[in-house]
Every structure is written in C-alpha cells, then in structure tokens.
Specification:
The protein is an all-alpha fold. It contains 5 helices and no strands.
Length: 105
Amino acid sequence: IDAFGDDHVLWGTDSIWWGSPQWQIEAFKRLEMPESLMKRFGYRPLTVDVKRKILGLNAARVYGVDAAAKIRPMPDDFIDRLRKKYKDSGLAARSNTQYGWVREA
C-alpha cells in the first residue's frame, strides 16, 4: 500500500484449494494496524475506505464494473408471493395471547 497506493491493491486468496475465504475476509475487515507499528514503520491506517477498495472496489474499477449501480433484484418467486400475502393478511402480526389450556393461578 505504501509503495503503490491503496488503489493498486486487490484482494486474492487460494480459496480454490482451501475452501471458502469468508473467515479471512471477516478477519481483514476487523484488522486494525497497531499504533506502535504505524509510528515505528510509518504505516498508514487501514481505514474502512481502504479496506473497501482492497476487497472489491479496485477490482470493479479494473474490470469496468459500476460498483455504485443498483443490482437488479430477482423477480419474486412463488414462495416470496406467499410470504408477502401472509404478511399483508395481518396473521403474521405478533400476538402475546397464550393459546390452549392455561393453568389458573
């Protein structure tokens, strides 16, 4: 990052051999450069914006993908229509009523 700038670094893994890299991505998102290393070696902090560039925005730029464009949502399928109909019916509303036999105190 110091040599080439944060807009010249792409995220990459050997996940084709070792499985999903999701745990590595989550670890990188949480990674914070210790203050002592930044002072000692002159490292710049890994900000949220820098991490976003590394994890995808830089690759989007290289491949000509508009990262800000809204992805077209998939059309509703049968289950989605049923779920919406159930939610709109009011039957899905929370109820604190106890059903069945309730022991009197």
